[in-house]
Design brief:
The chain is an all-alpha fold and 100 residues long. It has helices at residues 2-14, 19-34, 43-51, 58-61, 66-95.
Length: 100
């Protein structure tokens, strides 16, 4: 599981591609490791997953209108920008295997 978390963290540091999928996967790993991801290195992923649970994942996007996708993409860009430093910090801690 920690190898998966490390790879997902590296992905988030390198690219915003598949951002929501990576965030949700890290939130799940945090929940599995600690019972709940809150107050751990995985906290920010749980927070973002909760705040963006209305945005379409990649496999759902084909069923969405262009108008909805434009709004969703704009919101996602704002979320990424807002949480960029917190996500980077959490990812670096996961990669360095610092357990909190």
């Amino acid at each position: 599981m920690s190898e998966d978390a490390i790879q997902l963290a590296k992905n988030l540091l390198e690219t915003d591609e598949n951002y929501l999928e990576n965030i949700i996967a890290l939130s799940r790993i945090g929940n599995e490791m600690y019972g709940q991801c809150w107050d751990t290195n995985y906290h920010v992923f749980g927070l973002i997953a909760s705040e963006t649970d209305h945005l379409p994942l990649n496999h759902v996007r084909v069923n969405c209108s262009e108008e909805f996708l434009a709004k969703a993409d704009k919101e996602l860009v704002e979320t990424i920008k807002f949480y960029r430093s917190d996500v980077a910090s959490a990812c670096n801690k996961i990669i360095r295997n610092i357990n909190v």
